[in-house]
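Render this sequence as a predicted structure.
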Amino acid sequence: MEPDQKGTIVGIACGTGVVLFLDLAMYLLRMAIYKIGQKSGKTYKLFANENFDRLIDPSFKLVIFSAFKKQDHVLGEPLFLALHDLSAKHGFNNFEYHLRLSEKAGDPKWDEAFFKKHLDLQAKKIVVYGPLGAEESIKETLVKVGVKETQFHRL
């Protein structure tokens, strides 16, 4: 997935499907650290030739919905939480992270009401990954809340 996009990209991942979003999230984290450093006059780049000007459109946002059965099965959470916190704290508004644990009583189901409340129904791209049955179920729910087939994409 290229970071030089416009609009919101939503990643909905069940289990290991979240791995597909780690690279873009890591890029956004490195960019956040670079921009925070710029404000204080100290720039830091992990890779010397890295270009953060590719993502200049302020409308770009990556939203990750991640679902696992148990907390100790969760992948990428430290990265996603760090990026979520930096984005909120420094006003970048380019990343959100939502985790759902099946074992946790009270975690809302990913049903129509949940997606109506938490999903940008105008998102430019919606990418759903996970076990085939889960993917199809989520897509059916999203269509019921108004997501158009043209919004679904594959990486």
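Summary. The chain has one domain: 8-47+57-151. The first helix runs from residue 22 to 39.
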